[in-house]
């Protein structure tokens, strides 16, 4: 089992950041690596079990299922159903925690998955630095973070 | 109704440094402005779950708090008030740290639940939130900025990711045993893939003497401004582990050997690939006395010598550390064991360990006796070197195998291939590290050694102990021919 963890501090309240990222169909609005997204079968994007089908800017198509969504904990978990990455049993969680000292929030994005032996390092880089940190950087730019 | 207070902040320091302070349940009187003085009751360690800190506040109040959980993995501790002169009832608090991975910063979350007397909810919530938590955030920030956490305080060393004091034995130039000098040093925090070990027993081997004499300078370079530390193996307890250290945890009992010297010290970081966990039956001194020598016996008998029923094995220095192991293990495998020793007491010990025929010789003359005893040796394990080279060739049977393990009498000169041709001999010059180069190979061989010990195929050799500071005397002893069994340094 490979584990990837990235975290950051964003200079906006957890409520503000959450309103930007809670939409399971909204990745293209805030994540620079995502080109488009739709929810399969016309389901609402906050129904647990709904599937988002999106394309990366480099063309790869990914299907992910929403596993958990908590407005109370500012937390969202999902799994990959299909992707060109070559990962199995991929489950990820994106979570915000308010920082009471200043109007900031602490953002964490973590994943666990399995992959072919020898690819752990490369996939951890792609996911941790590319997907997770790339998303944090975009949020920090948007909210004027440090 | 239970009150809940949550406060959090970002500290501009890496998580290891913040956690090093916060995991110490008794550190708060060094950084928190509200605390006057604090101590741990009953002399327990301040990272012992269940310990109680008893402290007074600057306002005169007195509180006793108990540590309920402590996790170095999650960077989390939980504690509760067991007795207090302030009316906080059923107070349970949790401190959690998380790394901010896109900067050397730390997220610090501090929360608690408690009950209060009616009407005092808001007052006590504010006291906890501002007087304790927020004031603590600012104070620890200042404490770290001023480097107060890095200053030695004379207290007991905490197993943290900071450098810890170590004692080590260094060599400023090659030479005799007197060149080994003990000094104070620091053991840095373990890096990725490393564990830091509090060493209790260090094995002394002939290779240490060769390193000291400068016979293998590429292995232990020594300069006056860059002293070398000898030693290939030790046993002790894991203090802490860097990331990716193979699942080893603080407190694990371990031993290691590795191809890079440096074991003559009390605290050392080594790659986790070198490390094996110790079974409960094997104590630190036995592990330090047996690991390198036992693994050596294992590959000599199994891999190189292919020793089995009927093999005629000649073991020099049969009462030495490796010699005794070879005698008893080879005997158990069905071999006929002939040994050479330099004195009658050593001969007795070798016989007790399974040596069938012991030749007492002080002048490296043994070939005739070996030929008479068994008709020539199929395998010679040679730790003698220079002075015995012709006798070894003469002692071997046809197609025999000469395994040069050491050079106690001096380095071997180049061997003329025609020397081997006369009886179709083989010559090997092995070093143990190549036989334990992968963690799996190391674990498998170590397992065989512990199993052989448990079933009596090998016995713990007599162990002579020296303090780490007396490493020079230990070397003198190893080089004298009076000694039997294994030597260990106690750190």
Helix/strand structural class of chain A: alpha+beta
- Oligomer state equals heterodimer
Mean pLDDT of chain A: 94
Low-confidence stretches of chain A: none
CATH superfamily of chain A: START domain
**What is the CA-atom radius of gyration of chain A, in angstroms?**
15 Å
What is the helix tally of chain A? Answer: 3
Overall mean pLDDT of chain B? 91
Number of domains of chain A: 1
Q: How many structurally independent domains of chain B?
A: 3
Structural class of chain B: alpha/beta
Query: Could you give the order of strands across the largest sheet of chain B?
Result: 1-7-6-5-4-3-2
What does this 3D model show about the protein?
- The complex is a heterodimer of chains A (146) and B (491).
- Chain A is α+β, with helices and mostly antiparallel strands.
- Chain A has one domain (2-143): START domain (Alpha-D-Glucose-1,6-Bisphosphate, Chain A, domain 4, 2-Layer Sandwich).
- Chain A contains three helices and seven strands; from the N terminus they run βααββββββα.
- Chain A has helices at 14-21, 27-30, 120-143; strands at 2-10, 34-39, 51-56, 61-70, 75-82, 87-99, 104-115.
- A seven-stranded antiparallel beta sheet of chain A has the order 1-7-6-5-4-3-2.
- In chain A, strand 4 and strand 5 (75-82) form a beta hairpin.
- The radius of gyration of chain A is 15 Å and the shape is globular.
- The N and C termini of chain A lie far apart (33 Å).
- The model of chain A has no long low-confidence stretch (mean pLDDT 94).
- Chain B is α/β, with parallel strands linked by helices.
- Chain B has helices at 15-22, 28-31, 121-145, 206-213, 284-304, 321-332, 344-352, 367-374, 389-395, 417-421, 439-454, 471-479, and strands at 3-11, 35-40, 52-57, 62-71, 76-84, 89-100, 105-115, 164-171, 180-187, 194-204, 233-241, 253-257, 267-271, 275-277, 312-315, 336-341, 357-360, 377-382, 396-404, 426-428, 463-467, 486-490.
- The relative contact order of chain B is 0.10.
- Mean pLDDT of chain B is 91; it is low at 154-159.
- The chains are: A alpha+beta (146), B alpha/beta (491).
């Amino acid at each position: 089992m490979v584990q990837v963890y990235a975290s950051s501090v964003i200079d906006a309240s957890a409520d503000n950041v959450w309103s930007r990222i809670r939409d399971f169909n909204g990745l293209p609005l805030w994540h620079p690596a995502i080109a488009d997204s739709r929810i399969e079968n016309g389901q609402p994007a906050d129904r647990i079990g709904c599937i988002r089908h999106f394309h990366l800017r480099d063309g790869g198509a990914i299907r992910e299922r929403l596993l958990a969504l908590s407005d109370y904990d500012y937390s969202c978990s999902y799994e990959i159903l299909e992707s060109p990455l070559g990962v199995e049993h991929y489950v990820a969680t994106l979570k915000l925690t308010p920082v009471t000292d200043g109007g900031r929030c602490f953002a964490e994005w973590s994943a666990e998955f399995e992959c072919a032996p020898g690819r752990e390092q490369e996939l951890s880089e792609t996911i941790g630095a590319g997907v997770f940190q790339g998303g944090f950087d975009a949020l920090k730019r948007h909210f004027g973070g440090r | 109704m239970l009150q809940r207070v949550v406060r959090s902040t970002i500290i501009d320091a890496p998580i290891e440094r913040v956690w090093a302070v916060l995991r110490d349940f008794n550190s708060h009187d060094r950084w928190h402005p509200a605390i006057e003085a604090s101590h741990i009751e009953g002399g327990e360690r301040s990272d012992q779950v269940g310990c109680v800190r008893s402290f007074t506040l600057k306002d005169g109040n007195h509180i006793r708090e108990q540590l309920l959980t402590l996790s170095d993995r999650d960077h989390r501790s939980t504690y509760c008030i067991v007795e207090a002169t302030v009316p906080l009832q059923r107070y349970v608090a949790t401190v959690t740290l998380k790394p901010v991975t896109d900067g050397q910063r730390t997220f610090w979350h501090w929360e608690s639940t408690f009950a209060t007397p009616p009407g005092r909810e808001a007052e006590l919530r504010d006291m906890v939130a501002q007087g304790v938590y927020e004031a603590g955030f600012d104070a620890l920030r200042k404490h770290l900025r001023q480097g107060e956490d890095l200053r030695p305080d004379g207290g007991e060393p905490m197993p943290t990711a900071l450098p810890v004091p170590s004692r080590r034995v260094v060599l400023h130039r090659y030479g005799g045993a007197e060149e080994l000098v003990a000094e104070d040093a620091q053991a840095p925090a373990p890096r990725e893939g490393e564990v830091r070990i509090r060493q209790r027993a260090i094995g002394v081997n002939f290779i240490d003497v060769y390193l000291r004499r400068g016979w293998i300078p590429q292995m232990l370079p020594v300069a006056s401004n860059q002293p070398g530390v000898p030693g290939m193996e030790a046993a002790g307890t894991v203090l802490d582990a860097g990331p990716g250290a193979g699942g080893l945890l603080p407190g694990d009992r371990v031993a290691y050997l590795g191809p890079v010297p440096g074991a003559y010290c009390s605290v050392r970081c080594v790659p986790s690939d070198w490390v094996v966990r110790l079974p409960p039956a094997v104590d630190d001194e036995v592990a330090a006395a047996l690991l390198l020598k036992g693994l050596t016996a294992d590959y000599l008998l199994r891999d190189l010598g292919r020793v089995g029923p009927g093999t005629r094995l000649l073991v020099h220095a049969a009462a030495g550390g490796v010699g005794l192991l070879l005698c008893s293990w080879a005997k158990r495998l069905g071999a006929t064991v002939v040994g050479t020793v330099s004195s009658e007491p050593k001969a007795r010990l070798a016989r007790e360990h399974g040596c069938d025929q012991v030749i007492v010789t002080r002048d490296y003359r043994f070939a005739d006796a070996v030929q008479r005893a068994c008709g020539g040796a199929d395998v010679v394990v040679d730790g003698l070197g220079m002075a015995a080279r012709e006798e070894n060739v003469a002692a071997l049977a046809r197609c025999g195998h000469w395994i040069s393990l050491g050079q106690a009498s001096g380095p071997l000169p180049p061997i003329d291939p025609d020397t081997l041709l006369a009886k179709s001999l083989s010559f090997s010059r092995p070093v143990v590290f190549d036989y334990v180069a992968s963690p799996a190979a190391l674990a498998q061989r170590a397992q065989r050694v512990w199993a052989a010990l448990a079933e009596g195929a090998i016995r713990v050799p007599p162990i002579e102990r020296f303090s780490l500071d007396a490493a020079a005397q230990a070397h003198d002893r190893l080089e004298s021919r009076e000694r039997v069994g294994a030597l260990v340094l106690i750190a």
